[in-house]
Design brief:
With 413 residues, the protein is of the alpha/beta class. The protein is built from 15 helices and ten strands. The C terminus is likely disordered.
């Protein structure tokens, strides 16, 4: 019993000595994996610009601390494991020695001595095994905690479905900061949009435009305030129900390893008429028909079989699928040529005719010409909000050239 207690105390010591190094190793390893994934996604740029050595060096700089911390934890765990094995062998020898002495004193048979030795070995084996596998248990506990943190913002899947919204958007005193950041990215954002209005969201780089877009589609939950669609808080609206009424085109368009039809239909079979209607709205229907298998063409991982402009226009068709009430477009013309931009302008016109509310992040005046209102975001704060022409006329200084080369007259689209 004393030996089992001592072995258990060694297991606790193993946890104490290895917990922090393993935690630091996990964090460093996660950073290294994130760097590797980013390099893989941008493989063409890395190869074209001769950045391979720099990427490898950067990965090594992130991975070396992970290896060092893992080595430190392994050394400490090895010392504890060796000590536990030595203690167990000592206990085994002690049991045999005491048993032999009792046999010589005619107080125990030789068979009982062997049986006692086997029983002690069996009794102590689980404790010793716990010490050996303690590092795996610690890693599992850390992974469980990370999953818990990742799932804290996921809403209850059993919420009651809400009626189809009309498209009225209200943002009320919204402030947001990434977990662990002291300074908020957005501060006290407030504005309202009526059904069918198009808002041009403009501002310099790192002003918080993309973060606000993610709040408007419910991907992020604000620390203060709320973003509402027809009065319903987007952050508390279950994603599968909410997603039927929202279209979203992210700044970096990600397509899935599936057919074009499945990508437009949001990975479902999709109603063929709705799929074609969404593709026509995005001006990509004719292009799809020219592909080997039309809408059933497999586009590969990340849409590698398509150009950047084609991916963006299919992403726009996906955003338009199902006739959503709110569409949020984050720089939808970033990779478009003249024909693609003309198709985007036509899509914006169609959205307005349907009464779809649109939030548009863009830097080109031709696209902003479709907006009814404009909101200027600077350093996470609303600098100006109002009618498009009124706001654009007030933009002066270094902000204006970087955002709007020239204000487009109303109806120029």
């Amino acid at each position: 019993v004393g030996g089992a207690v001592t072995l258990f105390l060694l297991a606790l010591a193993n946890d104490f000595l290895t917990r922090r190094p393993l935690g630091r190793a996990g964090q460093a390893s996660a950073r290294a994996i994130a760097d590797a994934e980013g390099a893989t996604r941008n493989a063409d740029v890395v190869e074209a610009l001769g950045m391979r050595s720099a990427i490898v060096n950067r990965w090594n700089q992130a991975n070396d601390p992970a290896l060092a911390e893992q080595a430190s934890a392994s050394r400490r765990s090895g010392v504890v494991t060796a000590t536990s094995k030595m203690l167990r062998q000592t206990l085994q020898i002690g049991i045999l020695g005491v048993g032999a002495w009792l046999v010589l004193q005619n107080e125990m048979t030789a068979g009982a001595m062997i049986a006692a030795s086997i029983l002690v070995g069996r009794a102590l084996a689980p404790v010793e095994q716990a010490i050996v596998s303690w590092r795996s248990a610690v890693a599992a506990r850390a992974a469980y905690r990370r999953l818990g943190q990742a799932l804290t913002n996921i809403e209850d899947a059993h919420g009651m479905p809400l009626p189809e919204p009309k498209g009225r958007v209200s943002v009320e005193c919204v402030s947001y900061a990434h977990p662990g950041d002291k300074e908020p990215l957005l501060r006290n954002i407030t504005f309202e949009l009526e059904r069918g209005e198009c808002l041009g969201l403009i501002g310099p780089t790192a002003a918080g435009k993309t973060t606000l877009a993610r709040l408007l589609v419910g991907n992020l939950r604000p620390q203060f305030g709320s973003a509402r669609l027809d009065g319903a808080d987007l952050a508390h609206w279950h994603s599968e129900d909410r997603g039927q009424h929202i279209g979203y085109l992210a700044q970096d368009v990600e397509l899935f390893n599936a057919t074009i039809r499945e990508n437009i239909a949001r990975l479902g079979e999709g109603d063929p008429e709705q799929v074609v209607a969404a593709a026509q709205l995005a001006g990509v229907h004719d292009m799809i028909l020219k592909l080997p298998m039309g809408y059933d063409t497999e586009i590969g991982v990340g849409g590698m079989a398509l150009s950047g402009g084609q991916r963006q226009r299919i992403g726009l068709a996906r955003a338009a699928y199902g006739d959503p009430s709110l569409v949020v477009l984050d720089e939808p013309n970033a990779n478009l040529d003249q024909a693609g931009e003309a198709a985007l302008l036509s899509a914006l016109k169609t959205f307005k005719e349907r009464g779809t509310t649109v939030v548009l992040i863009a830097h080109r005046s031709a696209v902003l010409g479709s907006a009814d209102k404009a909101l200027v975001l600077v350093d996470g704060r609303v600098q100006m909000f109002g009618g498009r022409d009124e706001v654009l006329k007030k933009l002066v200084g270094p902000v204006r050239p970087s955002i709007v080369p020239s204000a487009a007259p109303a109806g120029s689209n």
